[in-house]
Amino acid sequence: MVGGKVRLAMGLQKSPKHGTPPKPPLPSPSSANKTNSSQKTVFSRSFGVYFPRSSAQVQPRPPDVTELLRLVEELRDRESRLKTELLEHKLLKESVSIVPLLENDIAVKKTELERALKEMENLRNENEKLRTEVEEMKGKVEEERKEKERKVREMESEISELKKMVTSHPVCNGKAEVFGENEDLLSSSQRFNGLVEVSAKSNLVKNLKRSNSKCWEAVVFSASSNEKVESL
């Protein structure tokens, strides 16, 4: 039964016996070729029903969803990494263009700093020089002050002596009457000269005191100004 089906599918089943029909006319070569090709097609189709092609049996495995998600995540990570690298490259390019400007600014600031240091050193030297001059001036003023005080004391002692001489002059006049009139005139002229000398010396002492006080004030003012310079 199965063999009959196979033969039927293959087109090999014998037709039932009938009376001999009249012979058909001989086909032409073109019609014979068409008949052979149609038989081959039917044969291949009949075999294809029971024996499918190997290419139809071997189908590609559908891709896994988790694998696709993993690939998508990797691609996203790679994209973000590439974007980061691109941004870093742009920043590096901009920083490279800024470097010469920064170097110029640094050179200018360095020059200004060196000039300021030189000026500071010069001011320090001038300050030391002024301090030395002030100390020397203080010493000189102190010596002059002592010398003037000594002179003033000497003049005051001389003035006191002259005053004593003037106050004691009437007694001298009483004694001079014995020696005559010329000596009296001489004593009066000496008294006048003594008075003039006393007044001149007193004025000189006053002037010395004034000049001493003014000089000392000048020294004090100079010292205070130098201390202000040092504090700056």
From TrEMBL:
<dbReference type="InterPro" id="IPR040265">
    <property type="entry name" value="CHUP1/IPGA1-like"/>
</dbReference>
<dbReference type="GO" id="GO:0055028">
    <property type="term" value="C:cortical microtubule"/>
</dbReference>
<feature type="coiled-coil region">
    <location>
        <begin position="65"/>
        <end position="165"/>
    </location>
</feature>
<feature type="compositionally biased region" description="Pro residues">
    <location>
        <begin position="19"/>
        <end position="28"/>
    </location>
</feature>
<feature type="region of interest" description="Disordered">
    <location>
        <begin position="1"/>
        <end position="40"/>
    </location>
</feature>
<dbReference type="GO" id="GO:0072699">
    <property type="term" value="P:protein localization to cortical microtubule cytoskeleton"/>
</dbReference>
<protein>
    <submittedName>
        <fullName>Uncharacterized protein</fullName>
    </submittedName>
</protein>
<keyword id="KW-0175">Coiled coil</keyword>
